[in-house]
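Can't paste images in this forum, so I'm doing it all in text. The chain is below; anyone willing to post the predicted structure tokens underneath?
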Amino acid sequence: MKRLLSFWLFSISLFAQSYFSPVAPTGLPYIVIINQITINGLPPAMGTEIAVFDDTLCVGAMVILDTLTGSIITWQGNNSLSLPGFSIGDSMKFYGYLPSPGKLFQFSSVIITGNGTFGSGTYSVVSLNYDEPSGVETEKPERFDLKVDIFPNPNSGDFTLKFTGSERGTCRIKMFSILGELVDEFFTELSSNVAEFKISSYSLLPVGEYVLQIDLGERSVFEKFIIVR
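Text version of the structure:
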């Protein structure tokens, strides 16, 4: 198994980040997975910055570097250490910044997992979109026709991945713990409308929730599963 990448290297670079100034880590993380990002109907440019706010407080941020989706660790306020952060139950706001031409804007969000507030469940999954007001209609990306099922779920670490849809190509599959630690990474090929792959590699993993990120081209699908004994 590949355990070489930390969660931070998954999708963000703290050193590349410049516009947004998120709070310092408080020891109380909450993960926000960005399922899809579009700006004027197109994928974001490399270097685009994305931040999560609780009202006017930036509680987490990322920079688009080598993937068009990713995850952001946001930080809950820690009163015992006098560290600022989000308050559970507050609404999440998402902002973007384009270094060129230096434009700040607010995303509209579609909540896939959670209810749009901090602390909803163990993590949230959202899709982000921004359309600049204009009289010119922008080209919309084609529909992504790929559905992924995991069964049985929960399982003991042995399960089947079922892919349904018209998409073709090489899938990169990353497996993360619920804390965002990369557990494994592998590849598979899609060449038909329905494909099943049996996975029998994780019977020794700790019980708990895990997330699969399935990348195909510039699009991604996220699926959660639970390992039990």
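Confidence is low (pLDDT under 50) at residues 1-17. Helices lie at 7-11.
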